[in-house]
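User: Can you predict the 3D structure of Lipoprotein? Sequence below.
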Amino acid sequence: MNKLFSILIFVLLAIILSGCKLSHSNDDVPIEMVAYSSLTDKETDLIQVSPKDSDVEKLPVNKKIRPFIDKDYNKKEVYSVIFHHTETESSGKLTVFIDIDRKTVVGKGYTDNWTKNL
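Assistant: Sure. Here are the predicted structure tokens for Lipoprotein:
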């Protein structure tokens, strides 16, 4: 009986510990996928290859990018995910701005290549 109880405890601990491991897997979502999941169907249609076909940069929030970011965002830096091959004749590249926590989308829009010159 004692041996059966020990096996049951071991199995329960294994289940609990594996469940904890699964809950942390969402923390490792690539920033490009966070940005991609915030896009509309029309915007995702612009991405010809893959969400990984993009540039990620950490940028200071300045007057050039402030219009694209949520007005309540008050941090000094933000990540930009610039999707390649998404520009049209009338707009720049599709860019998504993400909080420095790498999980929260704080803005998006079509931008020119100005981010490379900051």
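Helices lie at 2-23, 31-37, 41-45. Residues 29-117 form one domain.
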